[in-house]
Amino acid sequence: MTIRTNRIQGISRGLTAVALATGVLLPVAAAGPATAAAPAVTCSSNKAGLAKKLQGDITAALRGRPGTVAVAVYEHSSRTYCSLRGWNSFDSASIVKVTVLATLMWDAQKTNRTVSARERGLVDAMITKSDNDATTALWKQLGVGKINAFLKAAGMAATKPGAGGYWGLTQVNAAEQSKLLGLITLHNNVLTDGSRAYILDRMAHVVPAQRWGTPAGAPGKARVQVKNGWLPRASQGWRVHSLGAFTGLGHDYTITVLSHGNKTMQQGVDTVQAVSRAVHRDLNPATDGKARTFEAPVPTVVPPAAPQEVIPPMPR
Fold this sequence. Notes:
The chain has 316 residues and is α+β, with helices and mostly antiparallel strands. 34% of the residues lie in helices and 17% in strands. It has 8 helices and 10 strands. α2 (50-62) runs antiparallel to α8 and α3 (96-110) packs across α5. It is globular and about 45 Å long.
């Protein structure tokens, strides 16, 4: 896939953001997808030169790669936002598990109840190991009604839960997944600080075999929170997605990369990681005149031919 670079007035001539009822400024794209035949990466930033650098480097990272890729990057301190196909819909695969956990915490907040030991056990399995049975149990417990109520509160109107209990077929887009990561990393009125800390902690303890994707190229001192998803289907090949939140560097930021049309899982992983390395490098430039060493917080993991995460349940 070759991405043609052009200048689309940044994102509405600068960072387009919405003041949600949460009180947090979270980035959104325009009202709908760009009409250009070949969507281009668009970036805006309050930091001089950063938007142009990110736009060029993300574009270069994707040049020649197969499949359809959507990207959303948000860095809070400089109000930096990048987007590519932000409103294109993708089957969620297992990244929807972050939404399930956020819904659980939001629902518990409303009644001032503590998440039970049983629920915590299910959450641990769902997030750290991407266990499907645990996800199905929480999905059934919450019900689509509560999940939709959370999506409404979070301002994620375009996210549509999968029908018939097939949570892996939830329709998601990069813009709203970026918004979800913003709610998890920044103080707001939807998720309490305690809820956010719990979600981030679980995402920080994902098993090593599933820590590929957006963590690739992260500075060694970064606190990395990640959730990945992958799903092969007869049409549009492998869906390979990664959500990452990076904190503790004095400037928190998030990376969302969604893809489908990959011939193999590894092809999708390679694409996600190429984008992520470019973003980490640009957001963490050397300040001492010396080349900065970037390394993943865990050794690079090559996903096995047969994924260790069981594929989400699909209709026959």
